[in-house]
Amino acid sequence: MEELFEQLSPRPLADRLRPSTLAEVAGQDHLLGPSGPLRLMLDSGKLSSFILWGPPGCGKTTIARILATETNLRFVSLSAVFSGISDLRKAFDEAAMYRKSGQGTLLFVDEIHRFNRAQQDGFLPFVENGTVTLVGATTENPSFELNAALLSRCQVFVLNPLDHGAMEKIIQRAEELMGRKLPADKEGRDEIMSMADGDGRYLINLIESVYDLSGGKTLDRKGLEKILQRRAPVYDKDREGHYNLISALHKSLRGSDVDAALYWAARMIAGGEDPKYLLRRLTRFAMEDVSLADPNALNMAILCWDAYDRLGSPEGDIAIAELVIYLGTAPKSNSADTAWMRARKAAEEFGSLTPPKHILNAPTRLMKNLGYSKGYIYDPDTEDGFSGQNYFPEEMGRKVFYRPFERGFEREIAKRLAYWNELRKRKSQGERGAK
């Protein structure tokens, strides 16, 4: 009787639209198409353990269910969020029992990255001896979140967010099921897909809401915004998405693509990133990547940071935008960074050498008698303001660490260095001639 009432109760659209074959899965043709690895694995009749890595709503659970059905494997699903060691033991024991009767088990573990290293190790013997075919699902980079032993026993397949064509396919399937067109015009239809942001599950929920709340009207963009809530950006500040976006921002700035840099910065702020983290990274960029090509970049970074501290959001966000624009349009140079690395390497190689005596302080008579400070020339008192004396250890010889680029303010620095090098050369030749 309970099952009868369950059958009569309305089923969510997402449940009714769930694909029952791989051909119905949208947006993952690179894995499920005729030459896709999962399709080939299925056609061979031999399903090995693997990890599905992709964003929410891209079909990970659905694919696992279909593969279990089409290979006649018993499907068991666990979530690492709600399951512990006892649940795993029970699943393995039951799989071993079914195996004795010739029935294989596909163990689907959602959010598998949430299991700790010891728990992940617990899968190994059961995967190795074939007690279960493990299909793990994760939204996080497996190379960071899963241990090496488990990864060595599982292939990793990357699923993509749903593109426009895949989402259109889902909308068409919903229209066939509902027996009528989605009550939204072309602009509204595009807005729904934009709101879904590549998440198929969320897209279906939006479609269901439009059918339920449209009141029989064909809705445009503004009409949809009144009845639908835009999906919050998918962004986890302590996981891979965080590092992907800051990398995208940094490289866009380095490539002087201001508009792309503004987009990635806005994505991070919209996702809830701490603006001070962003300002710290931008200040670092001013030092490392703009550097002396525009010495004012660091001043600008500190001023914008100070402005944000004084104003807060949302007014202070303009300071972030101004800094992104300034850094993106500034000339780029990493000459200071590379000069520092060369100097550090030389310091390790010649780390025990003492400075030449003429640049040592001589606060005592003994030190003067030993030759400390003897022959030192005070540069501002010279005709050129430049003595050309040697400041390197005598045993080391002169080295060149800083090599300015011919761009931005460094052009002027390069001219100064060339001028001083010429003076140094002339003074050195004059000293040799005097001798």
How large a portion of the residues is in β-strands, by DSSP E? 5-15%
Strand/helix succession: HHHHEHEHEHHEHHEHHHHHHHHHHHH
As residue ranges, the low-confidence spans are: none
Mean pLDDT: 88
Global geometry:
elongated
The biggest beta sheet is recorded as: 5 strands, parallel
Please provide the count of β strands: 5
What's the structural blueprint in terms of helices and strands?
Blueprint: H1 2-8, H2 13-16, H3 29-32, H4 37-44, E1 50-53, H5 60-70, E2 74-79, H6 85-100, E3 105-110, H7 117-121, H8 124-128, E4 133-138, H9 142-145, H10 148-151, E5 155-158, H11 164-178, H12 186-196, H13 200-213, H14 221-227, H15 240-254, H16 258-270, H17 275-290, H18 296-311, H19 317-329, H20 335-349, H21 365-369, H22 410-434
Parallel strand pairs: 1-4, 1-5, 2-3, 3-4
